[in-house]
Amino acid sequence: MELIASNFAPIMFAGLIVFLLLGFPVAFSLGACGLLFAFLGIEMGVFPASIIAWLPQRLIGILANDTLLAVPFFTLMGLVMERSGMAEDLIETVGQVFGSIRGGLALAVVFVGAMLAATTGVVAASVISMGLISLPIMLRYGYDRKLASGVIAASGTLAQIVPPSLVLILMADQLGRSVGEMYKGAMIPAMMLIGCYVVWIVLLAIFRPNAVPALPPEARIYREDNGSAGYTSLVVLMTLSAVVSVFLASHMADIHTWIEGREVTSVAMDEKVVTAMCGGAFVAFLIASLNRLFGLTLLSRLAERVTFVLIPPLLLIFLVLGTIFLGIATPTEGGAMGAMAAIVMGFLRKRLDMTLFKQALASSTRLTSFVMFILIGATTFSMVFQAADGPIWVEHLLTSLPGGQIGFLILVNVLVFFLAFFLDYFELSFIVVPLLGPVAHSLGIDLIWFGVILAMNMQTSFMHPPFGFALFFLRSVAPDKQYVDKVTHKVIEPVTTMQIYKGAIPFLCIQLVMVGSLIAFPNLVTGNLDVAVDVDMDAVGAQMLDSLSGQGGYGEGNPFEQGYGESAEGAVSDPFAAPSSSGYGSDDPSQALQDSLSGQ
């Protein structure tokens, strides 16, 4: 028994693995393991029986967590946008824009996947939508099956790393950091990952042109009466929009000076980017609206179609992320605005009815309930694990690794990579991250950087052959039997499961390279964050003491030296000192306060 008590934390962790291997649901495995070892630990005297009294307060804390309210809001926004036909319109329109070049359809899938990720944030919705819409088109015009499958699965997983990603919200909550800062840190890595996908497709178009053919002329539906494609007016409109954006960005300080009536010399880069892009998009939308309203024929059919399809979701992205980055709204408020805007947009476009809306609400409720049950189970397990000094055991285990920060990051990412074969990112966020976060902090690792690295790594959980969820989603909609194409009337061969797996491997390697790049170059994440303000807590405490000592009502001198009661020996007792009989106290009141806060 003494051996078990002295190794209680590792035995408890091994018990959790046994529960999971037995096939029980993750949420119930976590809760059952936590309660079982709680009663076992009380009986063995590992920790006091009062630990059970802590559980209700912990669970109430979950329900009172405002940050987690962003999960149902962003989920509802994404599902409403997906059910209102936005994905179909985007893929069709962007495919027409890039269809005239080799690899154009694959590029369209990447760009649409990025936009869906920034508006939906739901991997399943993105993969299934693009699989149903773009895969038949790519097969129709001779795309390599492995590439077509891989690019759809990979682009769908961008919802994991492109803000407003649900996994970034969970990372911020578990690591105790701001969701807005986590979004800012992930923005550049997400753009780089999209760029890597584009470069890979371009290289294939150069060296394997037969694998990524261009659309034939008869497939390009947006043409003018004279037969032209209409790219000229599209380029002119984009150039005008870019000029307006650059003008706004360069004169942002002057605009603030005029509005506020005082001289403003500098404006935050976040505000410049968001405001400039909103201004440019609004100008393009205004020109297209006037062109259609008055029949001015200034724009081609392609330019008008691109404007009306792309601008609304872009403005929705600016509304959500822009307000968060600028500090106008919290992530919860931004998600609520985005969900409401998506609902209004869907009804105005007459692409959303009450049946589809109820389906979106039901799916959002199921996903949110799934997350909350896992979080309740994880909280029960972590509470008992902390009481058994589990974090200390994990810290001693990982801080003794060779290589310091880099060695720790490499081992952690290898661990997460293999755990992602079996666990979803929800389980990884609630089980693994709370154990690794304190160790990373003790090693001096920036937790925003750490969270973005783990989020990028967890994205690979959707691409792992043979267990990747994105591969399962694509398999469910990819043709598994021969069929006759309704446009070309040709017999199309099915897409095999092995072709889906092989197509995912190149994009999986790209993601792993990005993880290594983030470890080697932390400025890719931290360079986009706000400068931290260092606060000298000793100076603040001294200032508070000086302020209190000069106030009336406490007598003269230091109020903390007044008589709050005397001990048996006549000495003045310290009201902030921990009881000597307790094993959880500290002689230093500031340290006691920190220990108390860290345990919440």
From TrEMBL:
GO molecular function: transmembrane transporter activity
Compositional bias ranges of the Polar residues kind: 591-600
Residue span, TRAP C4-dicarboxylate transport system permease DctM subunit domain: 13-524
Membrane topology: Multi-pass membrane protein
UniProt subcellular location: Cell inner membrane
Keywords noted in UniProt: Cell inner membrane, Cell membrane, Membrane, Transmembrane, Transmembrane helix, Transport
One Pfam family this sequence matches: DctM
Keyword DNA-binding assigned: no
Functional note: Part of the tripartite ATP-independent periplasmic (TRAP) transport system.
Name of this protein: TRAP transporter large permease subunit
Organism: Lampropedia puyangensis
